[in-house]
């Protein structure tokens, strides 16, 4: 086969492939991509699975009584924030369609498969340190990459 016959196809598709690669999240947001698991709640007895694709977040899980839930929203990171990087969980809606208040937090990339987060709680102030509060807020979470 003559390779020159493929030149027009390459000319058409190469820019599209490069553009798709440029759209991939960079920096810390790129490290947040994928499936994660954690436990939440004052007693850490709610299992939570989190899927992050781009800025979109889908979190699903079940309460100790077996009641399932799913919420969707977006993640915003500020990796330049000092002294600690910040995360905002925004535009979240539950199965009922109601929007939840933004949840502001801190994050630390522990390693490629572990992220430590401290959330202030929906509608509450951003925490200033990685520490659980007495009433469940702020709340420290450890996300582990789900390799299943």
TrEMBL record:
It comes from Singulisphaera acidiphila (strain ATCC BAA-1392 / DSM 18658 / VKM B-2454 / MOB10). The keyword Signal applies. NCBIfam families: Planc_TIGR03067. Residues 123-148 have a biased composition (Basic and acidic residues). Keywords: Signal. Residues 1-20 form the signal peptide. This is TIGR03067 domain-containing protein. Residues 118-148 are annotated as: Disordered.
């Amino acid at each position: 086969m003559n390779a020159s016959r493929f030149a027009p196809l390459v000319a058409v598709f190469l820019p599209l492939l490069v553009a798709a690669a440029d759209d991939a999240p960079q920096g810390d947001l790129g490290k947040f991509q994928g499936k994660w698991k954690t436990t939440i709640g004052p007693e850490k007895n709610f299992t939570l699975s989190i899927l992050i694709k781009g800025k979109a977040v889908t979190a699903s899980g079940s309460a100790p009584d077996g009641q399932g839930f799913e919420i969707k929203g977006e993640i915003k990171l500020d990796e330049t924030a000092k002294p600690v990087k910040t995360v905002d969980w925004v535009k979240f809606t539950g199965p009922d369609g109601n929007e939840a208040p933004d949840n502001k937090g801190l994050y630390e990339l522990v390693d490629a498969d572990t992220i430590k987060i401290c959330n202030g709680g929906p509608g509450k102030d951003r925490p200033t340190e990685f520490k659980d509060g007495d009433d469940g807020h702020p709340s420290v979470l450890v996300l582990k990459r789900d390799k299943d």
